Amino acid sequence: MKRIYVKEEWCLGCHLCEYHCANANLGGGDMAKNLKSRTINPCIQVEEDGNICFAVACRHCEEPHCKKACISGAISVEDGVVSVNRNKCVGCFTCILSCPYGCIVQSDGGAVQKCELCTQNDGIPACAAHCPNQAIVFEEGRANA
Questions:
Q1: Cα first-last separation, the chain
Q2: Domains of the chain
Q3: Which of 9, 30, 67, 85 is deepest in the core (most CB within 10 A)?
């Protein structure tokens, strides 16, 4: 299964992945118009530690702790993609607490959100497609990742 991998040595810390992610999850189109005067809420987060920058996104675990912790059954796995059904989410945030990677965040609507590999946007995840330095890649699993 294809996954998102981050090459932290190539990450510029520009945060463009966050903007493209937020725009894709708003339906795509003109990013400047969609995000103007709006606080973005991306599913990918750029972290900075000294001189190192890296993007954090869901790892789509084979046995996700978030799914086990979800009391409402809102988190499911289909074809290796861990997804959240926002209509089922009760906003208890146990999934946020159980994710060892910090990849689940509260959404604007009270439910949670996480990277779903842009499955609803038909294709390559927006963060990987628009990373100016190819620090984020979408490819088949790597043994050393």
A1: 13
A2: 1-57+120-145 (3.30.70.20), 60-114 (3.30.70.20)
A3: 67
